[in-house]
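Loading example: each entry is read as two labelled lines plus one structure line.
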Amino acid sequence: MTPTVPRPGGPEELDPGLARERTRLAWTRTAISFAAVGAVVLRSHPVAGLVVIALAVPVWGLHHLFPATPIARSQSARLLTVTVTVVAVALVALALALLGQHS
Amino acid sequence: MAAEDHRGGPGAAPPAETEPDARYTFANERTFLAWTRTALAFIVAGLGIVQLLPPFPGVPWGRHLLGVPLIVLGAVIAVVGYHQWTGNQRALRRREPVRRSVLPGILVVSIVGLAVVAAIVVLLSAILRHG
């Protein structure tokens, strides 16, 4: 890691450490994870599965549609939404595990 | 813990807060997202064990014993991950050291515990089938 002087207008100056880009990719990975959970739910409960797969879209949009601001207070609401969504998915999974019929 | 409590004591001035380097804020957010994906992986693993795995012969409750804790732990990891993001962000704004994360500990205890339970269920199933 040799320290380099950021080239004016280059990627290192516009997005230091490519932090913004890496965070955008992390949001995409997380949205894909929601879709993967939905695919497993789909096997036992098609309606719930489609709902969970559809959740991937707002999760992805939380970052991509509302421009990311580094101000913590506006971030807090977005990340809390994700946390509440994960807990809701866990409750759906728990209901399916305890009440659903098993092969 | 006690050594840090004086900062929040009555009459104490709140620590000065400044917006940290955006790179740290982004890194903290990515850490939160990584724990979110870990939580989702626990949930999908738990659901998969209950719904997709064939039942253990002789141990009909074996799948639930493994799957239900995984789903619950998924929810716990998501909530603790958010709590740590909040704490880390506060520490960054106050230029304080970031607290050591409790999540790796939770992860290790969960995985070791579940591995032991899984081994017991598999052995019990084998004994009941052939015994």
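Residues 108 and 114 of chain B are 10 Å apart (CA to CA).
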